[in-house]
Structure formats: structure tokens, C-alpha cells
Amino acid sequence: MSIPCPGKPVRGSKSGIPIMALFDFLGRNWAMGIIWNLQKGPTTFRELQERCESISPSILNSRIKELRAADIIERTLDGYQLTIRGKELMELLRPFGEWSRIWSKEVFNFSKTQEKK
């Protein structure tokens, strides 16, 4: 398992500055979807797979391992959940959600009714 690591080359940065390593990591297929779906609380592997809709079990398993290694999610008796670091990350990402809603409406005429589809 190889996750983007600060200090080593990552997408967008030959020097691997931490923010670029984070963006490379979060940009992996389904990484953000898993984090987003765990903000609702702990869930089992099967429930998480259902929440993520089209994710394959192998991709989900790979991302879970990577997110655990990065201390963003953890396994508990109730299933997988965000760690303290993962919850901090979600708090930082929430403003991106608001910004993206305004951007999508103003630039692309995308409404909240379309977002729910």
C-alpha cells in the first residue's frame, strides 16, 4: 500500500509539499466519498458500500486501508468511523462544500434541486 506522502513526489508537486500530498490522497478514487459518508457516524463495511453506491468491494477495502494508515478513519466495535483527525478534516472541508454550491449556481446555473438527484 502506497499513499501519497509529504516530502516525496506526488501529483502536482515534485517536492511533495504537504497540501499537495493531501490533495493527491483525497483525489484518489472514492477517498472523499468514503470520508463524506462516514461523517454521518460509524458504519459497517456493507453499509458503507451501500452508501457509496457504485464502489466495488476491492476499491472500498483498499481505500479503507489507506485511510486507516493515514489516521483519517478507524475501525471500532460499531464499524468504521472518522478519527479525530478525520473529523477535523471534515470541518475544514465543509466551507469547500458551501463554496462549491455558490460556484456551481453562479458559474454553471446548477441548483440545489439538481444536487439532490
Automatic annotation (TrEMBL):
Question: Boundaries of each HTH hxlR-type domain copy?
Answer: 5-108
**InterPro entries for this protein:** ArsR-like_HTH, HTH_HxlR, WH-like_DNA-bd_sf, WH_DNA-bd_sf
What keywords appear on the UniProt entry?
DNA-binding, Transcription, Transcription regulation
Q: Which domain of life is it from?
A: Bacteria
Q: Name one GO molecular function term.
A: DNA binding
Stored PANTHER family: HTH-TYPE TRANSCRIPTIONAL REGULATOR YODB, TRANSCRIPTIONAL REGULATOR, MARR FAMILY
Protein name, as recorded: Transcriptional regulator, HxlR family
